[in-house]
Amino acid sequence: MRLIQTSALTTMVLLSASVQSLICAADTSDSSDAPPRNQLVRVVTISQDGLTDEPGKPMLNATITRLDRAASFEPDVVCLPETFTRGEPEAVPGPTTKRLADWAKKHHCYVICPIKVRDGEQIFNSALLIDRHGDIVGRYDKIRPTEGELEKAVCPGVLDPPIFETDFGRIGIQICFDVNWHAQWRRLKAKGATIIFFPSAYPAARQVKTHAWLNQCFVVSSTMTRAASIYDITGDTLATTGKYQRWAGAVLPVGKRLFEIDYHVGKFRQIAQKYGPKVRITWYHDDDLVSLASLDPQLTVDDLIEEFELTPHRAYIERAQQAQDELRPVAESASQVAN
Predict the structure, then answer these.
(1) How many angstroms separate the CA atoms of 305 and 291, rounded?
(2) In CATH, what class is 40-253?
């Protein structure tokens, strides 16, 4: 009798363990199969610094060799430098876009492919967006060609820069001399760009950092010479190329936001206490600012904004300005103001 009871108890324990194991497996499966709500985007940039190959196909081959080395980072998107083959203008699709389309498809990765494009009788300094399937899904034409380019019949693009939809959010592109016209960068941000890619002949580092900070947008520069870099929404450098590695990669939490410390210090301490390593909080003590990024695929910064009633920096400034304007004395006349 005692043997039967023991056997029955053992069976119950084993059944319970099996059920628990199935529940845990189901929970793990549900979690891993769920599409990410919070995008963590793996970006790679390439510098052509040090390459001495001839223009055209030799330069294309040499650059793809560098790109192949960067494939180990398993990027979601890669950016190449301005007119990176140094070749003659070509139709789209053409030989260069075919090579990069094959690479994009092989590595299941978006590619920003900047080349000179011949479109009918016109020539543009362009950047083509190739998707993970190797399809060309967008084209940006440099809005501000240099005087030298204009003399060589390069046409300026339309003034309103386009936005491109990807599976990790909206992106924009600016090319080299475009760095000097701030309104174009602001326009991309207003259209919802979370990352702006900057294929260029040179780094333009101070200006690019400023655009990143002023627009609170990630910026990825890719250069013919010197360093190619990836910048945070604060303008800080996240990654850069150099002597020993001519490509750089970073993981961008594109939902990252910036906040004024006013009304937020206690709330951010609560967030850190509750979510720990699932979030990254960075204090900018001398600026009275703090940034918040989620590192959890299923937790968004918008979730945290709602839960803790946070006010993003831009919304806070707009709210303050509205309150100021409502209480500002109205001048009786323009002449009185002048006097």
Answers:
(1) 12
(2) alpha beta
